[in-house]
């Protein structure tokens, strides 16, 4: 019997093996990531595992896929539900920036600390907004919807097996192996000829729209390992002659705590594809849509922390217009040093980040270094050594960084009529499309923090007051 967690781990391995055969540079990326993690642990044995054990970090992956319709989204949500992966967060990648893309997204992932510790596989999943008039006129929307309506990305057999796995908490060995085989095949790159005229028509608007709606299947767009030092990874990949995008997305490298998420990738590679020409002939060609992304995860920020982060990015934008990526990074550093506490203690005191709290061994029996009365504050218990504070890892994504990664791997910025109105998409639409609730990531982190405080208070027999 494969339980839910075993299915998720097996699927992540299967997908990784398949993707490595399709994109050999991904295997190189994994090898370099593993070396970076090993070297970082050796150089920083006291701090390297502050945000996760090395075995989890090195095994960790997130994938990205793209679908075209609400129906396709509902079916893939069922596949991921079999793996214990639930939709978390709503990301609108349209917006007003040059990196705007005609998609909205969510991330399927485990939602409990226990499940994440077993296997933290995530899939960032985007759906095309075919009726957004900034990108598609009414005629093209009709053509696009008709094209998407004629394809089947996830057949009935894999969806039915997934539903059984969700209901039963797993599958017997033979059924599990059949499900894993079929589910992996859903994301393989197809050798079916691509209609050149139709694909190019969509690509003039958006390379992402063409990648989703210009073909009859879906595929893994990228599979992402996690590293402990993304700057080292960037330098090593460049030294191997692999072309990286211009900059690392997200926060800068600095002397303070890593927060949220830093991401980069190697540029999308030209992959052999077959094309059907207007005269009906089939010829060989290439497409450059898949790339290799890598991530470095930091501490999850509270709502106040995210608000501050957004204001900091706005300041970086205002001060770095027209600057090179290197100059922009210098601006980021200055903004970070001005506005963000340089220690975890400072983040906690300001209520900017999430942490868990556990009783120091022996403290519950009166062995702590500070007194525990009927009522005490969280900061006093940490300062006296009665409680240990551990940062909660940010398990989710940043819409601006995701859009930046996607856009950096497109051949052109496409076209968009900003004078037109976009169509409504929000978390409620996403939930209705899938028939499943969408979790608020901040609520998940807050609940994890609160549960740890309640458990610590019970173990100590006291009431803990939270100052922020």
Automatic annotation (TrEMBL):
Keyword annotations from UniProtKB, A to Z: Dioxygenase, Iron, Oxidoreductase
Enzyme class: oxidoreductase
Xref: Pfam families: HGLS
Gene3D superfamilies linked: Uncharacterised protein PF07063, DUF1338
Enzyme Commission number: 1.13.11.93
Cofactor(s) recorded in Swiss-Prot or TrEMBL: Fe(2+)
Family as reported in the entry's similarity comment: Belongs to the 2-oxoadipate dioxygenase/decarboxylase family.
Protein name: 2-oxoadipate dioxygenase/decarboxylase
Lineage summary: Bacteria, Bacillati, Actinomycetota, Actinomycetes, Propionibacteriales
